[in-house]
C-alpha cells in the first residue's frame, strides 16, 4: 500500500471497529514472552485471529455479477474448507452482505442446507448453523448472496469521471486491510491464505481485470460476457482484485512476465513512463530477491479520483493506483510527479514479494510489508535513477518518522493490534518511515551483501506463507554471523528515538577520542526516564574520510576516530538517533559545514532544527547553520533550508509583527537562491534544480514575497492570452506552482475565474488540481466558499473531502468546525474506513488551545476507545506547537535582534 503524499493516511470503520472484550482477550491468547526485556511486546506463538479456530479456507470459487448503474452486485461463492474438529457451525467474515442461500457438501457426497444464519455487525461476521454436525474433513461451502457497490475506495466501489463523450463509471476493489468481507464471505485475515478462481458476468464492451490473466471469455449474446480468470496462487484475501470499465491496455515483456498498464480510454499514452520503468523494475527485483516473480502477468491499473486513505494498493498481479500516482500528463506534470510515480511503482512492485509472496501473519507485523517496501523503493530508485540523487531523501523520511516517534503518543514498529480500527491506524509514519530507517541502519551495520543474502533466504524459506518479524531476524543473524536481532528488537519492539550526547573531543596522536552517552529524544516529555537501545554508531572527523564504528550499549561508549578536527557522529546518516554535540564541536561543525557531504549537511540541519525546537539545544545553532549553507550546496540541501525557514515562518502564524520580522530574514536568505535558480529552466540542469525552483517559488509565495507573487500573477495572466509566447509564460513544470501562488493570494474575481475553469475541465487529473486550488486561499472568506462548494455535488465525491483537507492546511480551525457542523454530510463523502483519521487530521495544524478541547470532545462522542490514536496524536501535536511558540520562538527573536545589531 502506498500512502497518499498529503497528510491523509489510512482507514477506519466506525460502526464495526471495536471487538467485545472477550474477543480482544481471545485474539491475544497464546502470546508467550521471549527471554528478553520485551515481555510486553512479545511475539505470538500462535496466530492472532478474531475468528474461531478450526475451519480453514483452501480455495474460493467466486462468481460476481455487478450492476454498476444500480450500485449493486450478486455473488456466488463456493469455498473449499478444511474442518479440523466436529462442529455444527462455521463462522467467517461478512460485512453488509445479504445471504439468499447457504449449503455445505461433503467430499464424499451429501448436502446440508443451513439451519440458521447469524450476523454480528460489530464483529463483522456471519455464522452458518447446520442441523447435523460436520465431521473432520474437507467440505464445499456454497453461498448465494448480494451486496452494494460503494462510492468511496473501500470494498467493491465505483468511480465516476468526465470525458469529452460524457460521464463514465468504472468499478474497482480495495480490500486492505479488512474490506474483502464486503464483497465476499471470507476468512478475511492475512494468515488465512487460499487460492481464488474469480469469474464475472459483465458488459461485453468493457474490460474486466483480475489478479490473473483471463482464462476464457464467452459472449452471452445479450450485451454481456462471462469472463473467467485463471486461479491465483495461495494468497491473503486483501490481495484479491477486480476492475471493470471502459479501459485500454498496453503491454511489454520482462523476464518472461507480461507487464501491463491499464487506463481509462484516451489516457494510455500518459502511462508510457510507468510501463517502461516497470519492465526494468521487475528485472531488478527478480535479481535482488533471488525468487522470480511467480505470476504470469503484472498490471498497473490507473483510476481517476483519489482517497483520503491511500494512493496505491499492491494487489498481486493487479496493482491499483490513482491516476496522479501513475500517469504523466504533459500539460501539468512536473519532475516531482515523475519521481513520485517511480517511487509508487517501485513500492508496489516490491510488495509483490514483501507482502504478497510472503505476508505478515497478523497486523502486528505490518511493517514487514510497508517498511520493507518503503526501503526497497528508496534503494531501487537510488540504484536505477542515480541522476535524481534520491539517496539524500532518506534523511527526510527519517525525520518524518522521528517527528511522530518523539511524542508520547507514539508506538513501537511492531505493535499490538486488537481491532479492525487499530489495524487501519497502523498504516502510519512509524510503520513506513521508521521501518525503512531501521532497515537502512541494520543494512549499513551488517553490509549490503549480507543483508541481501538474508532477504533472499527469508523469501525462499517463507514463499506463499506468513511470518513474524523474528523469522526475518533469524535469517539476518545467520547471514551476519552475529546477533543483529538484539539491535533490531531494541528499535522495533519499543517506541522512541535514542539521543546520543557527544562529549568533549580530545585529539591525541592524530586520533580523536570521545565519550558517547545515550538518553532519549522527546518533544513533549523532557523529563521522562529514557529507554535503552543498542545503537550502531558511525563517526568521522571532517576532512579525514575514515570511519569509526561502535555499538553503544548500556547507555555509554568510548569511540576513537581517525583524524583531528570537527567530529561528525552519524556520518552517512544511516543511524536512527539524534545527536547532541558539545558547544565547541557545534561551532566547529558550523565552521566546516560547507565541507561536509550533502547527506551529512542534511542530517546536521535536521538534528539541529529538531533539537532546537524541543529545547535540547539552542535553536540559534540551527540558524547559524542556515547562514553557513553556501549557495553552491546541493539543491536538496538548499531545499531543506528553504523548507525549514518556511516551517519556522508558519510557527509565527497569528503574530503578524514577529512573523514579518522573521520573514524579512528568511526572504533575504532565500532571495539569492531564487536568483541563482531563476524562473526559467536551463538546458541540461539537474532534476533536483527543477524541484528546488518549484519549492522556492511556493515557499516565497507562502511568505508573501511581493516579487514572487507579482511574477506568478504576471505569468498566469499572460497564459490566459492567445499566442505561443504567452502560453510559454506558464510551462508545464511550473504550472501547478504558479497557479498555487495565484490561488493562495487570489481575490474574489480570480477565485471565480479558477472556479469556472474547474467546472469546465473534463480531464480528471487537471480537474482535481483545480478544485484543490479553490481550497488553498489564504483569505478566510474564500476558504469558507470552498468549504461550502465541497459539500455540493459539483466537485465529485472524491474531491469533496480533499478540498476540506486542503482548507485545513491554512485554516485548521475553520475546516474542523465546518466539518463538525456538517458531520453527516462529510461522513458520506469520506472512505468509511477513514473517518477516525480524517477529522483529527483536519485539526492537526492548529496551535489554538481551544482546539484541544474540541478535538477531545469529538473523539469522546464519535470514536470508540480503540480508535482514538490519530485524535491523541493530533492533540499531542497541537500541544507541542503551542509549546514551541511560547518557549522556543523567543530564542529566534533574540538571534534576529543580534543579527540586526
UniProtKB/TrEMBL annotation:
Signal peptide: 1-29
Catalytic activity: Release of an N-terminal amino acid, Xaa-|-Yaa- from a peptide, amide or arylamide. Xaa is preferably Ala, but may be most amino acids including Pro (slow action). When a terminal hydrophobic residue is followed by a prolyl residue, the two may be released as an intact Xaa-Pro dipeptide
Span of domain ERAP1-like C-terminal: 567-868
EC number: 3.4.11.-
Cofactor names: Zn(2+)
InterPro entries per the UniProt record, alphabetical: Aminopeptidase_N-like_N (IPR045357), Aminopeptidase_N-like_N_sf (IPR042097), ERAP1-like_C_dom (IPR024571), M1_APN-typ (IPR034016), Peptidase_M1 (IPR001930), Peptidase_M1_aminopeptidases (IPR050344), Peptidase_M1_dom (IPR014782), Peptidase_M4/M1_CTD_sf (IPR027268)
GO molecular function annotation: hydrolase activity
Similarity remark: Belongs to the peptidase M1 family.
Protein name listed in UniProt: Aminopeptidase
The organism of origin for this protein: Janthinobacterium aestuarii
Lineage of the species this protein comes from: Bacteria, Pseudomonadati, Pseudomonadota, Betaproteobacteria, Burkholderiales
Amino acid at each position: 500500500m502506498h500512502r497518499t503524499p498529503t497528510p491523509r493516511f489510512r482507514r477506519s470503520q466506525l460502526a464495526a471497529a471495536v471487538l467485545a472484550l472477550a474477543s480482544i482477550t481471545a485474539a491475544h491468547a497464546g502470546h508467550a514472552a521471549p527471554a528478553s526485556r520485551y515481555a510486553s511486546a512479545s511475539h505470538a506463538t500462535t496466530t492472532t485471529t478474531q475468528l474461531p479456530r478450526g475451519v480453514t479456507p483452501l480455495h474460493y470459487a467466486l462468481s460476481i455479477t455487478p450492476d454498476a448503474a444500480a450500485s449493486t452486485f450478486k455473488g456466488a461463492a463456493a469455498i473449499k474448507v478444511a474442518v479440523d474438529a466436529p462442529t455444527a457451525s462455521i463462522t467467517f467474515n461478512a460485512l453488509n452482505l445479504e445471504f439468499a442461500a447457504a449449503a455445505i457438501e461433503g467430499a464424499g457426497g451429501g448436502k446440508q442446507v443451513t439451519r440458521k444464519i447469524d450476523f454480528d455487525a460489530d464483529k463483522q461476521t456471519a455464522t452458518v448453523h447446520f442441523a447435523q454436525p460436520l465431521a473432520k474433513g474437507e467440505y464445499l461451502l456454497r453461498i448465494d448472496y448480494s451486496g452494494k457497490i460503494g462510492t468511496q475506495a473501500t470494498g467493491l466501489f465505483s468511480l465516476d469521471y468526465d470525458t469529452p463523450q460524457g460521464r463514465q463509471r468504472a468499478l474497482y476493489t480495495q480490500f486492505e486491510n479488512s474490506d474483502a468481507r464486503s464483497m465476499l464471505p471470507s476468512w478475511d485475515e492475512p494468515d488465512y491464505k487460499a487460492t481464488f478462481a474469480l469469474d464475472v458476468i459483465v458488459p461485453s464492451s468493457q474490460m474486466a481485470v483480475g489478479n490473473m490473466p483471463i482464462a476464457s471469455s464467452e459472449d452471452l449474446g445479450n450485451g454481456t460476457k462471462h469472463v473467467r480468470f485463471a486461479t491465483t496462487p495461495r494468497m491473503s484475501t486483501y490481495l484479491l482484485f477486480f476492475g471493470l470499465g471502459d479501459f485500454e491496455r498496453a503491454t511489454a515483456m520482462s523476464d518472461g512476465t507480461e507487464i501491463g498498464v491499464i487506463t481509462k480510454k484516451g489516457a494510455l499514452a500518459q502511462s508510457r513512463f510507468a510501463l517502461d520503468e516497470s519492465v526494468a523494475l521487475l528485472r531488478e527485483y527478480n535479481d535482488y530477491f533471488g525468487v522470480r516473480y511467480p505470476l504470469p502477468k503484472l498490471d498497473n491499473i490507473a483510476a481517476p479520483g483519489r482517497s483520503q486513505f491511500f494512493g496505491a494498493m499492491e494487489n498481486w498481479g493487479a496493482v491499483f493506483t490513482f491516476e496522479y500516482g501513475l500517469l504523466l500528463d504533459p500539460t501539468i506534470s512536473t519532475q516531482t510527479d515523475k519521481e513520485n510515480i517511480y517511487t509508487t511503482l517501485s513500492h508496489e512492485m516490491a510488495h509483490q514479494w514483501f507482502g504478497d509472496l510472503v505476508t505478515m501473519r497478523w497486523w502486528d507485523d505490518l511493517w514487514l510489508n510497508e517498511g520493507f517496501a518503503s526501503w526497497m523503493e528508496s534503494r531501487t530508485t537510488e540504484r536505477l535513477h542515480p541522476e535524481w540523487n534520491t539517496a539524500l531523501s532518506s534523511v527526510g523520511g527519517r525525520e518524518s518518522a522521528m517527528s511522530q516517534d518523539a511524542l508520547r503518543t507514539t508506538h513501537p514498529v511492531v505493535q499490538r493490534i486488537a481491532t479492525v480500527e487499530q489495524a487501519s491506524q497502523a498504516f502510519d509514519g512509524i510503520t513506513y518511515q521508521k521501518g525503512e530507517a531501521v532497515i537502512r541502519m541494520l543494512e549499513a551495520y551488517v553490509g549490503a551483501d549480507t543483508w541481501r543474502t538474508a532477504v533472499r533466504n527469508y523469501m525462499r524459506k517463507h514463499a506463499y506463507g506468513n511470518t513474524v518479524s523474528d523469522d526475518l531476524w533469524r535469517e539476518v543473524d545467520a547471514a551476519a554471523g552475529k546477533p543483529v536481532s538484539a539491535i533490531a528488537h531494541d528499535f522495533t519492539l519499543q517506541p522512541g528515538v535514542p539521543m546520543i550526547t557527544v562529549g568533549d573531543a580530545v585529539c591525541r596522536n592524530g586520533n580523536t577520542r570521545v565519550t558517547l552517552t545515550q538518553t532519549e529524544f522527546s518533544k513533549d516529555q523532557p523529563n521522562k526516564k529514557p529507554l535503552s537501545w543498542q545503537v550502531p554508531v558511525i563517526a568521522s572527523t571532517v576532512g579525514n574520510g575514515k570511519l569509526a564504528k561502535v555499538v553503544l550499549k548500556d547507555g555509554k561508549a568510548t569511540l576513537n576516530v581517525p583524524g583531528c578536527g570537527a567530529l561528525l557522529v552519524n556520518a552517512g546518516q544511516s543511524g536512527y538517533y539524534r545527536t547532541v554535540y558539545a558547544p565547541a564541536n557545534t561551532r566547529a561543525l558550523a565552521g566546516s559545514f560547507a565541507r561536509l557531504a550533502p547527506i551529512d549537511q542534511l542530517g546536521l540541519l535536521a538534528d539541529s532544527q529538531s533539537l532546537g525546537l524541543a529545547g535540547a539545544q539552542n535553536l540559534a545553532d540551527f540558524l547559524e547553520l542556515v547562514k553557513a549553507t553556501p549557495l553552491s550546496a546541493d539543491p536538496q540541501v538548499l531545499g531543506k533550508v528553504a523548507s525549514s525557514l518556511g516551517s519556522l515562518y508558519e510557527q509565527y502564524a497569528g503574530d503578524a509583527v514577529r512573523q514579518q520580522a522573521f520573514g524579512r530574514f528568511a526572504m533575504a536568505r532565500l532571495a539569492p537562491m531564487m536568483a541563482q535558480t531563476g524562473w526559467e529552466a536551463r538546458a541540461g540542469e539537474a532534476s533536483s534544480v527543477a524541484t528546488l525552483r518549484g519549492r522556492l517559488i511556493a515557499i516565497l509565495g507562502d511568505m508573501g514575497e511581493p516579487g514572487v507573487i507579482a511574477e506568478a500573477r504576471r505569468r498566469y495572466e499572460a497564459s490566459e492570452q492567445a499566442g505561443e509566447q504567452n502560453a510559454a509564460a506558464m510551462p508545464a513544470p511550473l504550472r501547478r506552482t504558479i497557479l498555487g501562488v495565484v490561488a493562495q493570494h487570489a481575490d474574489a474575481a480570480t477565485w471565480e475565474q479558477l472556479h469556472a475553469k474547474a467546472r469546465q475541465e473534463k480531464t480528471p487529473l487537471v480537474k482535481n488540481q483545480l478544485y484543490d486550488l479553490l481550497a488553498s486561499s489564504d483569505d478566510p472568506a474564500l476558504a469558507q466558499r470552498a468549504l461550502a462548494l465541497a459539500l455540493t455535488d459539483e466537485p465529485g465525491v472524491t474531491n469533496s473531502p480533499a478540498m476540506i483537507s486542503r482548507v485545513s492546511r491554512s485554516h485548521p480551525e475553520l475546516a474542523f468546525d465546518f466539518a463538525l457542523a456538517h458531520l453527516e454530510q462529510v461522513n458520506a463523502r469520506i472512505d468509511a474506513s477513514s473517518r477516525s483519521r480524517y477529522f483529527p487530521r483536519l485539526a492537526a495544524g492548529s496551535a489554538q488551545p481551544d482546539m484541544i478541547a474540541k478535538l477531545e470532545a469529538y473523539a469522546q462522542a464519535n470514536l470508540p476507545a480503540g480508535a482514538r490514536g490519530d485524535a491523541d496524536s493530533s492533540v499531542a501535536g497541537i500541544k507541542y506547537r503551542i509549546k514551541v511558540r511560547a518557549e522556543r520562538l523567543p530564542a529566534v527573536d533574540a538571534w534576529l535582534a543580534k543579527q540586526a545589531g
